User: Which sequence fits this backbone?
């Protein structure tokens, strides 16, 4: 039997399909988030990416309030991540309880966690200070509340762009939930 | 699903995917498809049962991810076309029918792939038709139960 005949015999369509399937499966397992922090980060990375794409495509110049709101969100994300990181070690039951919120890229710490972090963590204190300041700035600007800013922006975006974003968000959310079914490990 | 409900979005395929992954629905598909493979695709009873077991497990697993993704694409299309023209909501006859058709084609594609990969059945119009028919029946059954009693 010649070499090419042997190769042809070995590389059957079924074997090639199995190889693709296995490689895909391994890739999926490796790249899937596993810990609560990884799920939280994945959800937030998606949100930031969608925000950026939406802004680029809609060619909007963000108003001062929109920028403040964006900074506020970013600082809030930082705070949430720090409290989540703290709770993974100190309050794993709450992390488990808040699994759904974490998959959506959010996390609400308990008042006890917040107090403990304010007492013991300088970085958290500084970020919390920054958050309060941004909140005051937003209030002081005497312009529409955050909710109406969001919907105002949404109205400006064209419908097609909003639908595309909506579809992409649902896609990523469905994928994260699927990954969480198999890989979620509350304890690191 | 809790994640998506929390995000305040539901669409027909999401309900259908939840129902199709329910143990009793998988069991019903297993019986229907096992019988169909044995009776119409000339597989031995044991092989038909094993094939039905594996292909249903894989299609239930993949379906929980792929069915909602297919459904949201349909919904995005529907909301900018016929739902807008006719002033219909998300749950309407056209979407329900299209979701059923999409789910039948999707599960048939997955299950035929499994039969080919795991059981080395050569691609053949006869058993593809058998799987298609069996799926049409089981998905229709799942849809009817969704319409009667929506998943929580």
Assistant:
């Amino acid at each position: 039997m010649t070499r090419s005949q042997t190769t042809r015999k070995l590389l059957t369509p079924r074997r090639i399909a199995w190889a693709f399937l296995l490689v895909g499966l391994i890739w999926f397992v490796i790249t899937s988030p596993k810990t609560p922090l990884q799920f939280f980060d994945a959800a937030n990375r998606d949100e930031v990416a969608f925000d950026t794409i939406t802004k680029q495509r809609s060619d909007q110049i963000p108003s001062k309030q929109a920028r403040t709101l964006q900074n506020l969100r970013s600082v809030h994300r930082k705070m949430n991540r720090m409290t989540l990181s703290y709770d993974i070690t100190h309050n794993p039951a709450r992390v488990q309880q808040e699994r759904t919120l974490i998959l959506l890229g959010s996390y609400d710490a308990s008042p006890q966690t917040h107090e403990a972090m304010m007492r013991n963590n300088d970085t958290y204190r500084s970020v919390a200070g920054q958050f309060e300041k941004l909140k005051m700035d937003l209030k002081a600007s005497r312009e529409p509340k955050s909710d109406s800013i969001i919907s105002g922006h949404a109205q400006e975006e064209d419908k097609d762009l909003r639908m595309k974003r909506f579809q992409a968000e649902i896609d990523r959310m469905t994928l994260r939930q699927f990954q969480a079914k198999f890989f979620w490990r509350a304890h690191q | 699903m809790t994640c998506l409900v929390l995000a305040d979005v539901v669409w027909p395929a999401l309900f259908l995917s939840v129902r199709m992954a329910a143990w009793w629905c998988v069991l019903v598909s297993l019986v229907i498809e096992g019988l169909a493979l044995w009776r119409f695709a000339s597989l031995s009873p044991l092989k038909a049962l094993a094939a039905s077991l594996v292909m249903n497990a894989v299609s239930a697993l993949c379906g929980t991810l792929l069915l909602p993704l297919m459904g949201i694409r349909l919904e995005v299309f529907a909301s900018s076309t016929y739902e807008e023209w006719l002033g219909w909501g998300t749950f309407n006859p056209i979407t329900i029918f299209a979701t059923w058709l999409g789910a039948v084609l999707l599960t048939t594609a997955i299950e035929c792939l499994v039969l080919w990969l795991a059981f080395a059945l050569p691609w053949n119009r006869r058993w593809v038709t058998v799987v298609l028919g069996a799926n049409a029946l089981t998905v229709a059954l799942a849809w009817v139960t969704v319409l009667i009693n929506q998943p929580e």
